[in-house]
Design brief:
43% of the residues lie in helices and 22% in strands. By secondary structure, it is α/β, with parallel strands linked by helices.
Length: 229
């Protein structure tokens, strides 16, 4: 595999075996994905859900098992990912939007739940700050922002150790080192993770009062949930 020239083209190429690749390349992927449903409050019943960086729809698929009659908006820069979702969710109420996150027109006070599954690490720090403000404004009162991702700065002293452990994990799941080589090139070119402490701070600055890290694996593989009061 070779990396592409922009993130949309990159994920057009990555879409072919997306779920299996994510399971094999992302430590704790299935555990963290389960947080999108397991960590929601009891009796939570959203009318409108936004999936930011939906990929092939794995987060939405889990949510549909709980909320089959809810209206979904799926946002992704990759046309191929959206095509996969259209096939997958052809019997559900879904709007598809091909756009980069910061170009998306967020409706104010509209969504009850906004989710982001391993997608926001493509945004740099300023983009995340701006996006968190948009997410807060777009949530209805009592709405929830739910996010899972790798949350560590690349200049963190623990980052080299994380990369070594990550490499061992990926190479244990694929026969040769080609997958890790591609993943590392992708990571160096496109990924801009930020420490979870920074993201908690930015969420508070955006307006969120109640923020919880529900799950943290190996220090930096994180699920967090923020409530708009």
């Amino acid at each position: 595999m070779k990396i592409e020239d922009n993130i949309a083209n990159e994920f057009d190429s990555f879409s072919k075996n997306y779920t299996n690749d994510m399971i094999g390349c992302v430590p704790h992927y299935l555990t963290l994905m389960s947080c999108f449903t397991e960590q929601l409050p009891k009796k939570f019943n959203p009318t409108n859900i936004l999936d930011i960086g939906c990929g092939n729809g794995n987060v939405t698929s889990k949510l549909l098992s709980l909320f089959p009659d809810t209206k979904y908006t799926l946002l992704d820069a990759s046309q191929e990912m959206l095509r996969l979702c259209q096939k997958r969710f052809k019997n559900s109420t879904v709007e598809y939007v091909a756009s980069y996150f910061n170009d998306f027109d967020f409706k104010e006070d509209y969504f009850d739940l906004i989710v982001a599954g391993f997608s926001l690490h493509h945004c740099d720090a300023n983009e995340k700050k701006n996006l968190f403000r948009k997410i807060y404004n777009s949530l209805a009162k009592g709405g929830i922002f739910s996010c899972t991702d790798l949350m560590i700065n690349k200049d963190n002293p623990q980052h080299p150790k994380l990369l070594e452990e990550w490499k061992v994990f990926v190479n244990s799941n694929f026969a040769d080192e080609k997958k890790w080589q591609w993943l590392k090139e992708h990571y160096d070119e496109f990924d801009k993770p930020d420490d979870y402490n920074n993201q908690l701070k930015w969420l508070k600055e955006a307006g969120f009062k109640s923020i919880e890290i529900t799950t943290r694996k190996e220090g930096y593989w994180v699920h967090l949930q923020a409530l708009k009061g």
